[in-house]
Amino acid sequence: MTLITIVGIALGLAMDAFAVAIGASIRLGHVSARQVFRFGWHFGLFQALMPVIGWYFGTHLEALIVTWDHWVAFALLSYVGGKAIYAACAADADAPEAPEMDPTRGWSLVTLSVATSIDALAVGISFSLIAVDIWYPAAIIGIITGILTTVGMLFGARLGLRFGRRIEIAGGGILIAIGVKILLEHLLAG
Fold first, then answer.
1. 56-85: buried (b, 16+ CB within 10 Å) or exposed (e) per residue?
2. Which residues are CB-contacts of 101 (< 8 A; sequence separation ≥ 6)?
3. DSSP assigned state of 2
4. How far is CA 168 from CA 85, 174, 176, in A?
5. CA distances (Å), 54 to each of 30, 60, 77, in order?
6. Residue range(s) defining the domain that contains residue 41
7. Which of 54, 120, 144, 175 would be a feasible disulfide site paired with 125, CB 3.0-4.6 Å?
8. Mind giving me the DSSP string for 64-95?
């Protein structure tokens, strides 16, 4: 497999992570270097590990993974997007108990990292079927995803500062839309 092919696959896989980084960072407004690093690191790490896991399991669990991956991604992204919309609406209503959700920490970070990297699991399975050595492509996929996630975080934060709560609601909607897109792509392809 050529480097250009691997980079093309990596860019395709990283687009969801890029869009989610924009949507998630919109609500933060100002992002710290630590938040940007956490998001970029985790998204890149998960995006690099998932093809390795998919490659390892190869054809043994292919039918199970392909059957459920799109539903899992849809559910996770819809949950996080819905939570972001709820938090933005609660903040608009000046609810004092509305907790600040930081998508770069805790389970929100893990959930988003898994949801955006599930497609990479399928790529790993396909790599095993065509006997591609997984380590080099996995590293490239992780690096490209980390870079694009960082760029998305910085871009989304600027949008959040400029447009406030309305853009937070739009960011939550983007997460849900990405989940729906993943679901529809798999349902309509099969």
1. ebeeeebeebeeebbebbbebbbbbbebbb
2. 27, 83, 84, 87, 108
3. -
4. 7, 10, 13
5. 36, 10, 21
6. 3-189
7. 54
8. HHHHHHHHHHHHHHHHHHHHHHHHHHHHHTT-
As a whole number, the mean pLDDT across the chain is 81
Q: SS3 of 119, please?
A: helix
186 pLDDT band (50/70/90 cuts)? confident
- How many Å apart are CA 2 and CA 162, to the nearest integer? 42
| Residues 6 or more apart whose Cβ sits within 8 Å of residue 66 | 122, 125
Which is more confident, 89 or 138?
138
What tens digit of pLDDT does each residue of 125-158 get? 878 877 788 999 999 999 999 999 999 999 888 8
Domain total of the chain: 1
- What's the CA gap between 178 and 25, in Å, rounded? 15
Taking only the tens place, the pLDDT of each residue in 97-132 is 444 677 888 888 998 899 888 888 878 887 887 778
Q: What's the CA gap between 75 and 72, in Å, rounded? A: 5
